[in-house]
Design a protein that fits this description.
heterodimer; A: 595 residues; mainly alpha; Herpes Virus-1; Four Helix Bundle (Hemerythrin (Met), subunit A); three-stranded antiparallel β-sheet; two-stranded antiparallel ribbon; 18 helices; 8% strand; flat; disordered N terminus; B: 167 residues; alpha+beta; Ubiquitin Conjugating Enzyme; four-stranded antiparallel β-sheet; UBC (chain B); ATP binding (chain B); ATP-binding (chain B); ubl conjugation pathway (chain B)
């Protein structure tokens, strides 16, 4: 990793960089401001930032996955640090840390800046607020007004004594009200003295103790929203800590769930969080249903229920109880129809009115809704299909890892370690399906009027799809021939082919992801629309392709490369398969040196 | 157990109030079979618009009293910025602290088990003298109180007269 200073220097070079830099400085201070309104700013720009550091990033070094045990350990460490630094009890340290959202440095800064003020605001009084009645052997509880022996009375440091039963009831109510119990104050309304966890835990039932401890654990994550978040997978108990820095927001939790740290949706590179949000909203929004109803139905002129005309003539009879009979074209009562309106089945009234322009507005709206619905359906269908393909590929991958690899190892007399290229291929397929899926959301939101971009995008998407199909085909169908029977000599060719395809597809998709994240800025460069000629330029400018650790698909690493030595090599930049026979140090297509 | 504690405490408060009545209100049970429903009459405090009125209200206590606050609802007609049109009283000490976990600077104004029937009714009497139009329960009354004090006074005088007729 480069030092912080170097990063800042580099970032200062672009206006985007400066902006991101400020944001993240703020985060690293763990400031108390907990508004989330700046989240959308993260949307796109990190790709520029990491392009300035082609060699500085290892996949996912900026995330730490925390188990409950880790969180508890960190809480304990924070408490003991504060206990030592400020010479206060662990319970008081806990009160302070919860108040300052578990930031040790913040506690220190505030405490040493103005101890009095901090004590007053969190409720850690130095002296009892009331000193009466310490000597009596019996006391009246001010809540239940019963007289109790002094041993049955409890008070926080403020000295407001109440009986244990009343304290227990008070704390029990607070715990069942929610996480607010972590900052509970004295029951006396004029007193703000904090009730520490020592007092809480010593008084309440085991059930309440567990609830309280649960809130305590969760507060480390939930009060710390800018740095730690829960993994959004259902039932997953891990939290993820984010260290501001370079890199993408996509990460894999220990539970296997692949998600975006920023918006906590499933991983969605190359599409930015905002688009994903819009897309998901659109998918579940009622508005699509409304569009459909608008496009394909007309309301009954009498009862206003939408009617879809799925067959037959223009004579419509609404379903009971309405039973209104009307003409589909002019929506007038059927009784007005007959010879004088041009016959029963060709409505003159409609034709005349249409010529006068009466129906234009409604018709046009219906037409537009129909078009936009078709457009949306086109993208949604492909998005959803790729998702189901991905799910299928994931299942196949697991089957491969658990069953087929063993089989293959036996029939082909190969050690399992030599068959890693097969699982690598499947991992790549899963990843590519995911990317491909999101390119459809991208495509839906790509403005219609940017023709060049659309053309380029659709071309690249088409190529990506075709490449992925080749890989999927090879991994699924070609493999079958090697699963049964005896060791085949052609297995080595298969290895070369599959490993080669994996590597080529991987590179192609990485380039696609990067291009989309850069908002297809290559299109702005003249003559760059064709992928082969654009790549040499791009790698010279902001792309930084190749020669750097891979993002997102890091699982399939570089090991697959070993098998592709024999007959041809794939150019890292334009993915062209060059033959080894040629003077092959330079790619014949893009003239880029072989790496 | 908890319910037992609540009814013991309520009986004790009822006994104390009947033995040592407090100026400004009187209190009793709606029905002798339940100690959780109280009938109270609040006397309009002197030198205020509500002077001379006898306002009836019902206090309902939850089973986990005193850990949760009771509700108070006027059964007499009432026109006040902090009383909902249906008669419910909206003052901060009747709000459980859990309603607003961040409002600790105002902890002293919220519900606490230390409050009793007496402190609640004293707060309501104070509310009659000093309406708070910042966060009104009855927006129309608050608006009138702020902008058409004459009209507000007229309405309050009418409900005071009505309350005397029923008393």
């Amino acid at each position: 990793m480069e030092s912080e200073d170097e990063m800042q220097d580099a970032w200062a070079g672009t206006s985007d960089g400066e902006f991101v830099n400020e944001e993240e400085d703020e985060e690293s201070d763990a400031l108390a401001s907990d508004d989330d309104n700046d989240e959308s700013d993260y949307g796109f720009d990190y790709s520029n930032v990491d392009d300035l550091h082609p060699s500085s990033r290892l996949p996912q070094t900026n995330f730490t996955i925390l188990s409950e045990k880790d969180i508890r350990q960190r809480q304990d460490e924070a408490v003991s640090t504060i206990t030592n630094f400020l010479s206060i009890s662990p319970a008081d340290a806990g009160v302070l840390l919860r108040h300052f959202k578990w930031s040790v440095s913040k506690v220190n800064d505030e405490w040493f800046a103005d101890e009095e003020r901090v004590r007053a605001s969190v409720g850690l009084l130095e002296k009892p607020a009331t000193s009466k009645r310490q000597t009596q052997t019996e006391m009246t509880c001010e809540i239940c007004f019963e007289v109790h022996p002094f041993e049955k009375m409890r008070a926080p440091r403020c000295g407001h004594y109440f009986c244990e039963t009343c304290w227990t009831g008070y704390i029990h109510t607070a715990i069942n009200d929610g996480p607010g119990c972590l900052t509970l104050r004295c029951a006396d309304p004029s007193c703000g003295s904090a009730i520490g966890e020592d007092m809480v835990l010593s008084l309440v039932s085991t059930d309440d103790q567990q609830k309280y401890m649960r809130y305590l654990l969760r507060s480390y994550v939930e009060d710390n929203r800018k740095q730690v978040k829960w993994c959004p997978a259902p039932g997953c108990e891990y939290a993820v800590e984010f260290q501001p820095g370079v890199g993408s927001y996509d990460l894999v939790c220990k539970c296997g769930f692949n998600f975006c740290w920023n918006c906590r949706e499933e991983a969605h590179r190359p599409v930015d969080c905002e688009t994903v949000n819009k897309w998901i909203l659109k998918n579940c929004a009622e508005s699509e249903n409304m569009n459909w109803i608008l496009a394909n139905s007309k309301p009954c002129p009498k009862c206003k229920r939408p009617i879809e005309k799925n067959q037959g003539c223009m004579h419509i009879t609404c379903t009971p109880p309405c039973k209104f009979e009307f003409c589909w074209l002019c929506l007038g009562a059927w009784t007005d129809h007959g010879e004088r309106t041009g016959g029963f089945y060709a409505c003159n009234r409609y034709e005349t009115a249409k010529q006068e322009g009466v129906y234009d507005e409604a018709e046009r709206r219906r037409e537009m809704a129909k078009n936009s619905l078709e457009r949306y359906t086109h993208y949604y269908e492909r998005w959803a299909t790729n998702e189901s393909s991905r799910a299928k590929a994931l299942a196949d991958l697991q089957d491969m890892q658990n069953v087929q690899i063993e089989k293959l190892s036996v029939t082909q007399c190969q050690p399992v370690s030599q068959l890693k290229f097969v699982t690598d291929a499947w991992l790549q397929i899963v990843e590519c399906r995911r990317v491909l899926k999101w390119t459809y959301a991208y495509g839906y939101y790509l403005p219609e009027n940017e023709h060049t971009k659309r053309q380029f995008f659709e071309y690249s998407q088409g190529e990506a799809e075709a490449g992925l199909e080749r890989l999927h085909q090879c991994a699924e169908k070609d493999l079958l021939t090697f699963l049964g029977g005896t060791p085949t000599s052609s297995f080595n060719d298969f290895r070369t082919k599959l490993a080669g395809l994996t590597s080529v597809t991987k590179t192609y998709f990485e380039n696609l992801v990067r291009a989309l994240e850069n908002n297809l800025s290559d299109v702005d460069i003249p003559k760059a629309a064709a992928k082969s000629s654009s790549s040499s330029k791009a790698s010279g400018s902001s792309k930084g392709r190749g020669g750097r650790p891979k993002v997102g698909s890091s699982k399939s690493g570089g090991s697959s490369r070993s098998g592709e030595e024999s007959t041809h090599w794939s150019c890292e930049h334009c993915t062209y398969a060059n033959t080894t026979a040629a003077s092959s140090i330079v790619c014949v297509i893009c003239n880029h040196a072989r790496s | 157990m908890a319910e037992n504690q609540a009814s013991l405490l309520l009986r004790k408060q009822l006994k104390d109030l009947s033995r040592n009545p407090v100026d400004g209100f009187s209190a009793g049970l709606v029905d002798d079979s339940s100690v959780f429903e109280w009938n109270v009459t609040i006397i309009g405090p002197s030198e205020t618009l509500y002077e001379g009125g006898f306002f009836n209200a019902i206090m309902s206590f939850p089973p986990d009293y005193p850990n949760s606050p009771p509700t108070v609802r006027f059964t007499s007609e009432m026109w006040h910025p902090n009383v909902y049109p249906d008669g419910r009283v909206c003052i901060s000490i009747l709000h459980a602290p859990g309603d607003d976990p961040n409002g600790y600077e105002l902890a002293s104004e919220r519900w606490s088990p230390v409050h009793t029937v007496e402190t609640i009714l004293i707060s309501i009497i104070a509310m009659l003298s000093n309406p708070n139009d910042e966060s009104p329960a009855n927006v129309d009354a608050a608006k009138e109180w702020r902008e058409q004090r004459d009209e507000f006074q007229r309405k309050v005088r009418r409900i005071v007269r009505r309350s005397q007729e029923f008393a």
